[in-house]
Write a structure and sequence with these properties.
The structure holds 2 protein chains of 2 kinds. Chain A is of the alpha+beta class. Chain A is built from 8 helices and 20 strands. In chain A, helix 2 (93-103) packs across helix 3 and helix 3 crosses helix 4. The longest helix of chain A is centred in the middle third of the chain and has 18 residues, at 167-184. Classes of the chains: A alpha+beta, B mainly alpha.
Chain lengths: 359, 296
């Protein structure tokens, strides 16, 4: 199996600060990989290293099977789309698309063909003669993507490309980027701090923290089987509920509650005992008609209600911990009501309280 | 609340009141003074202004005076060289400082420092540095190179370049600081994009960064050009116009005519010519820049 991008034992230090530590990452041909993490986790730094805009301290980077660790950005077969678009403001859209190609000495006919193709794909033909200042944010970002398209490279790098746009436009362009990926089938590496973007776009997500990859898996896997407490807490909005307790005899004990763990798949295959943290997503605590499927039920008092239209969030205290529960949007509830909730242990996650790893 | 639209005259009253002194100054001193000077340049005013018309006599005399012609020539040489070199040096210094170097603040301060000096001080300092006996030439000869010659201020053909060196020394720092501010205003991602596009650094500067710095360039241009046109004190302090009349400049001609030769009419004619020259440069440029098509 050949990889499009391989990163081997990558280290990057700024002075004494290690920004990336012994990082390994293999990206398949045609894969859409999202690097996700909070600010300062090293995700943009990693992307800049792949692009060749930062010199690595140690380790190797392969693109298309070639060692490009010390190659210039333009020789790596990559192109990058930036958050601030980084268009050349004094040139027209066409000038922006062709400047790099002209500089590389490509024949005029070839350039014209590539621009035509890119403009067609991105539907920016009417904008070609305009300057970036006369474009909206979404149009500018499209031109920036066009600049990557005309270079005809194997790997596209996106550095938070949608963060400067408003919510509506962001959702629209997100879909377009996904379509573009389906159309071109290039390898794409996409940096974001927005988990919705990550979940919707990615074939695989790499969640980063402190210069390390915490988990690299499909969005489904990351959401449902987070490998550690950090990932579990980071992904999902509202975030997962965590209860501190103990596993004993196939049950999870917290306060006076006993949650049977039948159906839970332990990471190591066999059942574990001892102190643990259980993580329950708000939608995996069921109410109403779904209670029948729950392995265990209990009653809580509603403290706060947040109706969001499609669903309603309920805040309550369970075994001394503040939890949120996602209910159907059609349910009417008011604070002070007593409601019955149930747990789905096969959907839960158990973590070791010391190592914070999944049990 | 009154439903009537308030009198437009009284809108933003404090701002209007505050602007009055400047408006008055501008009208009386600049416009009035200029008009008065132009009018009196057609008279035979000597020590005192007198409305005795002589038509274009003063101008004929002016353009027949060798000293004035030398002054114009000097200003042209000094101006063009200064303009080109101060921008080139200032920009290169700024680009070098922009490479994330150490001690940036110190270096920036050192280079900007000459600008804090008066032209009189600069002139004297460079008069000494360029002095053949005590300055650069003297030092190099003392080191053993007896045939070394470097005394621009004492050879009429190149004396103006001796002044130019002093002017550059003083002016480059300001240009550098302005350019540096402009460079810092460039989005780092544009640099990255250019690198990914495979555009060499010098091309990025010329085709992308410098066009983006246009507003800074215009500000700097205005500052530098006004400095060039009004050059006077540097000449007085450094060469006194000499050797002979080798480093005379128009502003000095005007001053000398008006206050030393007691020939106001001639001074007025010369200053009017300076005004016309500046206007000939500024007006077409301003029309290109601000007139014509409105940019969206």
């Amino acid at each position: 199996m050949t990889f499009s991008v391989e990163i081997k034992n990558l280290d990057l230090h700024f002075g004494n600060v290690a920004v990336l530590q012994q990082l390994n990452l293999d990206i398949h041909e045609g894969e859409f990989l999202v690097l996700l993490g909070s600010s300062g986790c090293g995700k943009s730094t990693l992307l800049n290293c792949i692009a060749g805009l930062l010199e690595v301290t140690d380790g190797q980077i392969f693109i298309g099977g070639e060692n490009v660790t010390w190659a210039e950005p333009s020789e790596r077969g990559i192109d990058m789309v930036f958050q601030s678009y980084a268009l050349y403001p004094q040139m027209t859209v066409e000038g922006n698309l062709t400047f790099g190609l002209k500089n590389a000495g490509l024949p005029k006919i070839e350039i014209a063909e590539r621009v035509k193709r890119a403009a067609g794909i991105l539907q920016i033909e009417p904008l070609l003669k305009r300057k970036p200042a006369a474009l909206s944010g979404g149009q500018r970002q499209r031109v920036a993507i066009g600049r990557a398209l005309v270079r005809d490279v194997d790997v596209f790098l996106f550095d938070e490309p949608l963060s400067n746009l408003d919510a509506k436009l962001r959702a629209d362009l997100r879909v377009e980027i996904k379509k573009l990926h389906g159309q071109l089938n290039n390898t794409m590496i996409y940096v974001t701090h927005d988990q919705i973007e990550a979940m919707t776009l990615a074939d695989r997500i790499a969640i980063m923290k402190g210069g390390k990859i915490m988990q690299l898996a499909s969005p489904h896997e990351i959401y449902n089987r987070p490998r550690n407490l950090y990932v579990a807490d980071f992904i999902g909005s509202p975030s997962m509920n965590f209860l501190n307790g103990e596993i004993s005899g196939g049950n999870f004990m917290v306060g006076k509650l006993t949650i049977p763990l039948d159906g839970y798949e332990f990471a190591k295959g066999s059942r574990q005992e001892g102190k643990a943290i259980i993580g329950l997503r708000p939608e995996h605590i069921v109410t109403g008609d779904n209670l029948a499927s729950a392995a265990m039920r209990t009653k809580v008092t509603v403290e706060l209600v947040e109706p969001m239209g499609s669903d309603t969030l309920i805040y309550a205290t369970l075994a001394g911990t503040f939890i949120h529960v996602r209910m159907d949007g059609q349910v009417q509830a008011a604070s002070g009501d007593e409601i019955e909730i149930g747990f789905l242990p096969d959907r839960a996650s158990l973590f070791d309280p010391v190592s914070e790893e999944r049990l | 609340m009154s439903s009537k639209r308030p009198n437009q005259l009284f809108r933003n009253m404090p701002a209007k009141v505050a602007a009055i002194p400047m408006v008055v100054t501008a009208l009386f001193i600049f416009v009035g003074g200029t008009a008065w000077t132009v009018v009196y340049s057609f008279t035979k005013s000597g020590l005192l202004p007198r409305l005795k018309w002589v038509g274009l006599d003063q101008y004929e005399r002016l353009w027949g005076t060798n000293r004035w012609l030398v002054s114009i020539e000097n200003l042209a040489i000094y101006g063009i060289c200064m303009l080109v070199l101060v921008f080139v040096i200032g920009f290169i210094l700024a680009a070098l400082i922009d490479q994330k170097i150490r001690f940036e603040n110190t270096i920036r301060t050192v280079i900007l420092y000459p600008y804090a000096l008066s032209f009189v001080v600069t002139g004297l300092v460079w008069q000494w540095i360029l002095n053949p006996e005590f300055g650069v030439q003297g030092i190099v000869r003392d080191l053993g190179w007896q045939s070394f010659t470097f005394n621009p201020l004492y050879s009429p053909q190149i004396a103006i370049f001796g002044v130019l060196i002093a002017g550059l020394w003083q002016g480059s720092g300001l240009v550098m600081v302005l350019m540096l501010a402009g460079l810092r205003g460039i989005d780092q991602e544009v640099w990255k994009a250019a690198r990914v596009d495979g555009i060499p650094t010098w091309k990025t500067y010329i085709f992308i960064v410098i066009p983006m710095m246009r507003p800074v360039f215009i500000t700097t241009l205005v500052l530098v050009v006004t400095g060039i046109v009004k050059i006077y004190d540097l000449i007085v302090a450094q060469t006194g116009g000499g050797p002979g009349i080798a480093t005379e400049v128009p502003a000095k001609y005007v001053y000398d005519m008006m206050f030393q030769a007691a020939n106001l009419g001639q001074g007025f004619a010369a200053s009017t010519m300076m005004l016309v020259t500046v206007a000939l440069i500024i007006i077409p440029w301003a029309m290109l820049e601000f007139g014509g098509k409105r940019r969206v």
